[in-house]
Amino acid sequence: MRPAAEHREAVRALLSTNLQQRVQLRPLAEAAGRILAQEMAAPRSLPPFANSQMDGYAVNTAELAAVPEGNTVELKVAAPIPAGAAAPELQPGTAAPIMTGAMLPAGADAVVPIERAEPDTFFAPQDLAGARVALPGGIPQGQFVRAAGSDISAGTRALAKGTRLGPAQLGLLAALGVAAVPVLAPVRVALLSTGDEVVEPGQDLAPGQIHDANTTLLAASLREAGAEVVRSRILADSPEDFLAALRRELRQERTDLVVTSGGISKGAYEVVRLALAAEGVSFLSVAMQPGGPQGIGTVDGVPFLGFPGNPVSALVSFEVFLRPALSALTGLPLPRPAVTAVLDAGTDSPEGKLQVRRGLFRDGRVSLVGGPGSHLIHALAESNALVLIPEGTGHLEAGAEVTVWLLE
């Protein structure tokens, strides 16, 4: 059996070699959560001009330098400078009322807060003629001034290639005047269901049939991971018919990755394995419980992954093999948080396999939910973590430390 870590690397290598990364230009409103496809340089400086950090008076500090500390000097009140307006040059012997964010006028090099002025309120427009204000001496240059480019200078790197675009990153681009941004296109996954024994939820079951949980489970997981999912159902009695139908799907839909669940074990009717083994796809056993049977390869140059048919096996396969590969190669999704937890109760594990159990994690402790069976989807639904029991571990006592991947 192939070790789980080795198969995880094989999946990463498969996607690294065959996954086609495409770039889309998206408006900022549609780029949230996407991955930046190229480095972005600042097209302008932020702030684009020197501006006031607070409401007060724009002054030339040279006119206040000779005033002893604790004394004030009277200056003529110039025309007010509101935010969003061009500032006229500050004339000698004057102080200009200035609002937060307003452009600092030429000739000014500091702002005196309104609280330190006498009077400590602004003059009404009808009272400006002949108005004078007393300001303290000893004001340092640059006081309460946001210098042009003090946040970022034009031409410097704003965001690195591969950055995940969250609210802060999109806000920076908007402040720089960028309206659209190049991002990696979502990985387009053809998610195939097969088999006469599974029927769509909502349909009646005939004897021997079950409802298809895997397609919903994997589609939701893939979309949560940032992928675009195309669902298909192929019913074929022979491997030749299955392969022909799959090739038609690949011709009709632009596909970056094919994922199937079921039909890959060693049984006589495993149509996926029988159809694709001759195409060079490998079907093997991985030392993992659940999720031992796995398929990996390419079909007409498109990477292919075959997961087992039991629902928990399919999800564990996605979490252990595919999700980390997508995260490493495309930046989406973010890796699962991994923490160390104390096991509430003892448990057994097959020594030669990585066992992935479902658990409920709270306050540094984890309780196993349900048994190791790959069909226990109710236990999966009640869990918020995957508990990893490594190869070589036959038994763990209560109180043992285990690695936990948080699902929420």
From TrEMBL:
<protein>
    <recommendedName>
        <fullName>Molybdopterin molybdenumtransferase</fullName>
        <ecNumber>2.10.1.1</ecNumber>
    </recommendedName>
</protein>
<dbReference type="Pfam" id="PF03454">
    <property type="entry name" value="MoeA_C"/>
</dbReference>
<feature type="domain" description="MoaB/Mog">
    <location>
        <begin position="190"/>
        <end position="328"/>
    </location>
</feature>
<dbReference type="Pfam" id="PF03453">
    <property type="entry name" value="MoeA_N"/>
</dbReference>
<keyword id="KW-0501">Molybdenum cofactor biosynthesis</keyword>
<dbReference type="Pfam" id="PF00994">
    <property type="entry name" value="MoCF_biosynth"/>
</dbReference>
<dbReference type="InterPro" id="IPR038987">
    <property type="entry name" value="MoeA-like"/>
</dbReference>
<keyword id="KW-0479">Metal-binding</keyword>
<dbReference type="InterPro" id="IPR036425">
    <property type="entry name" value="MoaB/Mog-like_dom_sf"/>
</dbReference>
<comment type="similarity">
    <text>Belongs to the MoeA family.</text>
</comment>
<keyword id="KW-0460">Magnesium</keyword>
<comment type="function">
    <text>Catalyzes the insertion of molybdate into adenylated molybdopterin with the concomitant release of AMP.</text>
</comment>
<dbReference type="InterPro" id="IPR036135">
    <property type="entry name" value="MoeA_linker/N_sf"/>
</dbReference>
<dbReference type="InterPro" id="IPR001453">
    <property type="entry name" value="MoaB/Mog_dom"/>
</dbReference>
<dbReference type="InterPro" id="IPR036688">
    <property type="entry name" value="MoeA_C_domain_IV_sf"/>
</dbReference>
<dbReference type="InterPro" id="IPR005110">
    <property type="entry name" value="MoeA_linker/N"/>
</dbReference>
<comment type="pathway">
    <text>Cofactor biosynthesis; molybdopterin biosynthesis.</text>
</comment>
<keyword id="KW-0808">Transferase</keyword>
<keyword id="KW-0500">Molybdenum</keyword>
<dbReference type="InterPro" id="IPR005111">
    <property type="entry name" value="MoeA_C_domain_IV"/>
</dbReference>
